[in-house]
Amino acid sequence: MSLTSAATLATLDRTGPRRITDLAAVEGVTQPAMTALVRVLEESGLVERQGDASDKRVTLVCLTEAGASYVRTRRQAGVHAFERLIGELTGDEVEALVAALPALKHLAELESQDREGPKR
């Protein structure tokens, strides 16, 4: 799976259903490219398109249960990889990481706000 595909699934998991135009802007690709990517993800059973109850002209892209499961599995694999690597650090290095956690959390929040843009 491409990084853009995985990032799109993660965005949908974090923010909920989105318009294709919103997803394209968040992921930094063109609308036609996102439309093609959504089509592939849809054919793979990872997303589905649903109507927007507040505006019948709008179609939203939503994660399926298989898509949500894929995102959870990827995240868990990342957690295990970091656990293994952190286990190889010295005590001082682990302490330095712990001290840096508040700043890293803030960076992640800022990046998330930047990537998500306005919610629909």
Salient structural properties:
single chain; 120 residues; alpha+beta; two-stranded antiparallel sheet; 5 helices; 68% helix; elongated
Verbal overview:
With 120 residues, the protein is α+β, with helices and mostly antiparallel strands. The protein is built from five helices and two strands; from the N terminus they run H-H-H-E-E-H-H. Helix content is 68%, strand content 12%. Helix 2 packs across helix 3. The chain starts with a helix and ends with a helix.
Write the layout of secondary structure elements.
Blueprint: H1 3-15, H2 20-27, H3 31-43, E1 47-52, E2 55-63, H4 65-86, H5 91-116
Antiparallel strand pairs: 1-2
SS strand fraction: 5-15%
* Category from helices, strands and their pairing: alpha+beta
Distance between the termini: 26 Å
Q: What level of helicity do the residues show?
A: 55-70%
**SSE order:** HHHEEHH
Mean pLDDT equals 90
- Main beta-sheet annotation: 2 strands, antiparallel
Described by the principal axes of the CA atoms, the overall outline is elongated
Low-confidence stretches: none
Strand order of the largest sheet: 1-2
Count of distinct strands: 2
